[in-house]
Amino acid sequence: MSLDVLQAGETVWIVARSTGVASLVALTLSLLSGMALRPKSLGWLSTNRAISELHSYSTVLFLPLGVAHVIAILLDPYAKVGLLDLVIPFAMPYGTLAIGLGTLSVQLLVVVLIAAWSRTRLGRGQWLAFHRLSYLAFAAAFLHGILSGTDLAYPWLAGTAWVVAAILVLFGLRRIAHALRARPLTATG
Amino acid sequence: MSSRSPLIRSAVLLRAIATAATLTSLASMSAFAATHVQNSAAPLQPPASTTTAPTTASPTPAPTSRSATTRGTTVTGRVATTTAAPRTKTHSS
Q1: B33–A17: do the CB atoms touch at under 8 Å?
Q2: How far are the Cα atoms of A16, A102, B81, B87, B88 from residue B84, in angstroms, in the given order?
Q3: What pLDDT score was predicted for residue A9?
Q4: Residues β-bridged to residue B76
Q5: How far is B30 from chain A (nearest CA, A)?
Q6: DSSP states of A49-89 as a string?
Q7: Alpha-carbon distance A111 to A74, whole Å?
Q8: CA A9 vs CA B42, B54, B92: distances in Å
Q9: ipTM attached to this prediction
Q10: Is B76 helix (H, G, I), strand (E, B) or coil?
Q11: Is B61 helix (H, G, I), strand (E, B) or coil?
């Protein structure tokens, strides 16, 4: 194998890793801004209108990075991930769960994005059901990073990721509590 | 309950900060990955390539050769040799 091929392989590998982590960061911003809207959890930071705009805009951040991550992994000769693995999750001969979670996350995000773009054609209930898949998509992406990520194996980065995950859980709990309070009381006796 | 004014009122500024945070993570992770190509503690290590070297006799290899075994590591083909006399003895009785 020539040195050029080795260096090209390393470049693809570096792109795959950096876009993977950066897309997870952008996805975190998306989830955080989305969960903060109703209970106004980020009221100290900005107005609800600005947070809502950030939530819509975050797609522009994580989508190209996620696509770049997938393309780089497909091109990486060491990873040995094929096009079929993008369609069928949990079919890899190695890292079945770890890589399968990444595939699942991509597929769920595609569903969420299609639902968001066709929001006017869907009923509110239908749209919400699809939109809430983003929680599963993020959980799958996060676990994919933890279980397969070369960078998330470094303690400093893994520690940061878990702290961010804990913050997201807190925001999620606050969102659930707000939803429960806002739900009209239907006492049945 | 006091209603303080938020730190950032501009939606454009908020988006710019989010973009900067994402791009900073991209740039810093690229730099980090370039200097830490391989992590032996990574949970996932792809299986080694199954291609085998040809078994036919080949001429004397070059003093140094590079072959990729795992990502970011190369194996040099240098082999230490000696011209000293053999240390074997024949036992005659």
Answers
A1: yes
A2: 51, 58, 9, 9, 12
A3: 78
A4: B66
A5: 5
A6: HHHHHHHHHHHHHHHHHHHHHHHHHHH-TTT---HHHHHST
A7: 21
A8: 18, 24, 60
A9: 0.89
A10: strand
A11: coil
Q: What is the pLDDT of residue A182?
A: 83
Residues B83 and B64: their CA atoms lie apart, in Å, by 20
Question: What would the pLDDT profile of B77-86 be if each residue is shown by its tens digit?
Answer: 445 455 555 5
In this prediction, residue B60 has a pLDDT band, given cuts at 50, 70 and 90, of low
Contact between B21 and A18 using a beta-carbon 8 Å cutoff:
no
Domain locations in chain A as residue ranges: 1-79, 82-156
B-chain residues within 8 Å CB-CB of A12? none
Which residue type sits at A64?
A: P
More confident residue, B65 or A126: A126
Contact predicate A74/A82, CB 8 Å: yes
Contact yes or no for B71/B44 (Cβ under 8 A): no
Q: DSSP E strands: which ranges in chain A?
A: none
Residues in chain B: 93
Residues 8-37 of B with CB under 8 A from A: 8-11, 14-15, 18-19, 21-23, 25-27, 29-30, 32-34, 36-37
CA distance to partner chain A, nearest, from residue B58 (Å): 17
CB within 8 Å: A80 and B26: no
Best of A42, A48, A52, A78 to disrupt the B interface (most B CBs within 10 Å) is: A78
pLDDT band at A22; cut points 50, 70, 90: very high
Say if CB A36 and CB A171 are below 8 A apart: yes
Look at B39 and A150 and tell me if their CB atoms are within 8 Å.
yes
